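dumping this here so i dont lose it
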């Protein structure tokens, strides 16, 4: 019988980790093993996934994530460590909302964010899971994805393969009222030390404030932030 800490959400989260550690599983199997309602099991698994404690593969099954090994070895997630210093500077420079997205299959997850203290903003909470069918961050992650992932994304996306080719050529993407009415954004790829695209950094906000050409306004600053993230990952 498992011990209880008296902290319900913590005990449930540990229960999810134990269930996945026993054998990779999808949501239905996770519910069976933990006895949790689907909504609860899904919320906890996604939250653990955001922090790297779980990882969901292309088959949709959760497995123990890289953060467990990082914690055991005393090393944190270098991307999130880099974002902690780079994202606030980009937020202060633009006065807009800033997000960092990682791809998970044909979805993207907000893994870090920096919001302005006041004024109009486009709040995307850390842990938010979005489809790759719309938005500048989706275009960036799709543009540098493998061919199979690109095909799967394009089957549902409002953008085309030609758009992704333009994104790769230009080095950044923008969107206006794609993901959400009244919101515009611009995004750039983040490369790791080996040159692989591992994330997309984005600046977003209400169209009324940032206009319908956010790329013309902030692409240079955004690319500089993406390069700063790359240099930190490279040196780490």
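and the seq i came up w/
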């Amino acid at each position: 019988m498992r011990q209880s800490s008296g902290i319900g959400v913590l005990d449930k989260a540990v229960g999810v980790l134990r269930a996945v550690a026993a054998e990779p599983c999808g949501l239905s199997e996770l519910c069976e093993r933990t006895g949790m309602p689907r909504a609860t099991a899904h919320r906890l698994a996604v939250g653990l996934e955001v922090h790297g404690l779980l990882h969901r593969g292309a088959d949709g099954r959760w497995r123990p994530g890289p953060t467990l090994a990082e914690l055991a070895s005393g090393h944190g997630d270098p991307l999130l460590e880099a974002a902690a210093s780079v994202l606030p500077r980009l937020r202060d420079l633009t006065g807009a909302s800033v997000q960092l997205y990682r791809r998970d299959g044909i979805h993207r997850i907000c893994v870090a964010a920096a919001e302005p203290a006041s004024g109009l903003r486009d709040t995307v909470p850390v842990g938010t899971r979005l489809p790759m069918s719309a938005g500048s961050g989706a275009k960036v992650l799709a543009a540098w994805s493998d061919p199979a992932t690109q095909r799967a994304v394009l089957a549902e996306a409002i953008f085309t393969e030609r758009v992704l080719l333009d994104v790769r050529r230009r080095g950044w993407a923008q969107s206006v009222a794609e993901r959400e009415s009244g919101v515009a954004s611009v995004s750039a790829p983040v490369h790791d030390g080996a040159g692989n695209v591992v994330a997309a950094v984005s600046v977003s906000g209400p169209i009324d404030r940032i206009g319908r050409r956010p790329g013309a306004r902030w692409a240079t600053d955004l690319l500089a932030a993406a390069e700063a993230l790359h240099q930190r990952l490279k040196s780490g």
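The radius of gyration is 18 Å.
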